[in-house]
Amino acid sequence: MLTTDDAAALAERLLAAHADGSLLEPISAARPDFGLADAAAVRAVVTARRRDAGWVPVGRKIGFTNRTIWPRYGVSAPLWAPVWDRTLVRADDGTATVDLGLLPQPRIEPEVVFGVRDAVPATLATETSDASAATEDGAAVLAHAEWMAAGFEIVQCPFPEWRFTLPDGTAAFGLHGRLVVGRRVPLEGLDAAAREELADRLTSFEVTLSRDGEVVDRGVGANVMGSPALALGHLAAVLDGDGDEPMAAGEAVTTGTITDAWPIAPGQTWSSHYGALDLPGITLTFE
User: Fold this and answer.
1) DSSP 3-state helix, strand, coil percentages of the chain (rounded to 5)?
2) pLDDT averaged over the chain?
3) Count of structural domains within the chain
4) Please, what is the angle between helix 228-242 and helix 131-142, to 10°?
5) Has residue 213 been placed in a domain?
């Protein structure tokens, strides 16, 4: 286990690299025993430093909920990290422009974002390949969501060639760079039948991801732990089990990429289409 001083030193190293866009060797290269508990300690220091600097947490990101990409990145479980007022971008009309600035090795991920209405029970966390079970549990999660929106998470990686362990990625801000949130579709007021119908579509809808008008990838909702709604339930259980602050009303939570994560560069325009989910997509230009 890291000492308090070690956690602080690693956090400062990551924050300094983020400030100038430089790359670092993974923490695990020098500390082969660097584990998730150590990473959580570093994340706590980073969170405290950012709060002290005036950053305001506005939600969470969940990463690596898509099992289809685990072999590519060498991970075997999801991770989470805060989303901040300085990393959130609103695209209420379905369009936005993002300056990639010094984000190292940025990539784009099409996701489903939920607005939290009240605490999601930690018991609603079952990942399942059973469509009926996913629909039932997903509908129960949706009862605690205020809205839903298309999202693009811009992830970044300070480790060369995107090579890292899960604890490395957790410590490095959960690889979070920006979260672009599209037009919010209200979910409050849905009756039980409507929530169940939506939960069913969340398991089977298809996202189409395009760059400069050309389709580059497609993915289905079931890629994300069986359903993006189940990913929200998973986060509730993880936070409860680790003793972290539970999700609170008003938070925006993005649930993980439905396709692979794709490299991006200034001058490109990317767009998403959510098929049968009937969720307004986003057109995003990078500077």
Assistant:
1) 35, 25, 35
2) 95
3) 1
4) 70
5) yes
